[in-house]
Every structure is written in C-alpha cells, then in structure tokens.
C-alpha cells in the first residue's frame, strides 16, 4: 500500500481555517480509498481533529505550530526529509499553496487563490515578499498543482506560465453536512465572509443605504469577522449609518438555520479563488446574488442572480426582485440546489486520487 504524507504544518493548531476545512472534508472522502495509507503531519492534537476523521486508520504526527510563515517553512526544510524517510512516504500532498521546497518524493500542492498576485496592494510588503520567494519554488517542486477553480487555474497560468502543464482543476464542495431545517423564509439576506478589500463591502453598504432611502426594510446579517472595521469605514464615506447586523462566527448548526431562513446570500466580491459560501447557501436552497465575475459564474451557475460589479443600483434591483417575487425565489432556490449537487467531496477525492496515481506512475517511469 502506497503511503501519502499530508503536510498541514502551515495551519494553526486546533483552530479551523479555510484550508483546514478544505483538507478535513477532502480527507473524509480520501480515507474511503483503500489504495493509500495517509499520514497527517499537523500541528493539531489528534484528539482535536474532527470526529469524521477519528478511528479510520489515519496516522497523525503532531508538531509545534510556528506562526511565522518563513520560519515555519525553513523548519520544514529541516524536519520534512527525515519524516519522509522514517514514515516510508511515497508521495507528499500539500493542501497549502506553499510548502517544503525540498523532498525526494513527488509533491502535489493546492492553490486556492492568487490574492498576492492579483491584488498585491492589499497586503504588507513582507507578506508579498515571502509569497514571491516560496510560492514559485513550491510550484517548481510539485509534479501537479491543483487549483480549486478554473478561474484560479487561469490566474496561476497567467502569473506563472512555466507551470501551465502541471495545472489541474479539482473543484471543492460545501463544508456543511447538517440536514436542512424547515423554517419559514424571512425577508433578510446574509453576507458570509471575513471582510477584506476584495469582498465588495462598499457596494453592499451603498445598496443597503439605497434600500433604506426607498423605505424598503431588508436587513442583511454578516457572518464572519470585520477586524479592520470596513463596514464603518465605508458607511462614513457614504454618509450613512446603515450597515449589516454583525453576528460574528456561528456554529455550523446556527449557520445552517440562517441559510434555511434567509431569502438570499449577498456575494458582491471583486475577486475570489472559489467562493465556498455560495455552495453552502445553495445546498440549503438559498439563492445567491453575486457580482458578475468569471469565478462566481463558474461556481454559482444558474442558482444565482448576477449584477455588474460595483453597481449598487443593480444589486438593489436584484434584492427587491428576490424578496418580492415568490416565483423567482422558488425557481432560483430549486436551481441553487441542483447546482450545488454538481459539486461533491467524493468527486474531488476521486480526481485527487487520479493525480496521486499519475504522479507515482510518472515517478516510477523516471526511476
């Protein structure tokens, strides 16, 4: 049986991040494949891993978490080759876009987005510097570079054309497993995101201000973090006090209830690598109102209304249509569910296993 090391060392210990969520749901499906034995190299304590991964033959190696990315990666240079040898690893899988730049086994890494290349102005110089050093080196070492969307693949090939032949698209899926809750839909929307400059906060605040001026009572609830106070910043800029109602982080159960009770998910981003909340919302029959950018069309499909990016008036029109037009809501709700069914972790795992097989065959042929 071939042995795969999953390098999870860049993600914080015992704390869910976007990449950890991606990995755990993918790993849940990967573990059903008996062709491979998986070894998880992580900063998580084994007992803190999700219950869906417990008692399934997953070997766990826990190391201390190093918060500084360059220090973490330099530490990997020293410890990873030894672990690869001790654990008799045949292939390394890295759910992060950057990882150890040295290793004697084939590497497959995952690129979720190209934020540092597409919008470098939003990030501090030293963060961009480490990205520019370590990301190209990781790409060079990898046999395959998995991208979670066609749009991310296009971005990767545009900024790093030398790796174009290594790029493969494997869509992710919703990271919620709970059953749908039968609740009466209410005339409000939700916005699920940790707020950053690409999330379209200004157009959302402007649209809410327009709705208020029209005396149309539609609340929007924010699920996530706004550490830099972007809502208040744009409200001040637009001379309004109307901003989303902040809920902070919700449990999976409470988030599912919101998806089952709201009338729409607002997703006005200017850039995304994938847009996972779209599939989460659609899984529970919640239509999406999204900015008209390629990646959101790729993910949301027919289960969404699209408006031109930064056009607050069109966003307002879309909100009114979905709130007032029951027939439109019902048709979009059904389309949303159907679209979400096109994505699954089982499909993602199957495609990932195919790449494992190809990488090992390639290594065998080159031996």
From TrEMBL:
Q: Sorted alphabetically, which Pfam families does this protein's record hold?
A: Glyco_transf_4, Glycos_transf_1
Gene Ontology MF terms: glycosyltransferase activity
* Biological process terms in GO annotation: lipopolysaccharide biosynthetic process
Report the residue ranges that make up the Glycosyltransferase subfamily 4-like N-terminal domain in this protein. Answer: 17-171
Q: SUPFAM superfamilies in the record, alphabetically?
A: UDP-Glycosyltransferase/glycogen phosphorylase (SSF53756)
| Record-annotated Glycosyl transferase family domain positions | 185-333
Keywords annotated in UniProt:
Transferase
Q: Please give the name of this protein.
A: Glycosyltransferase family 4 protein
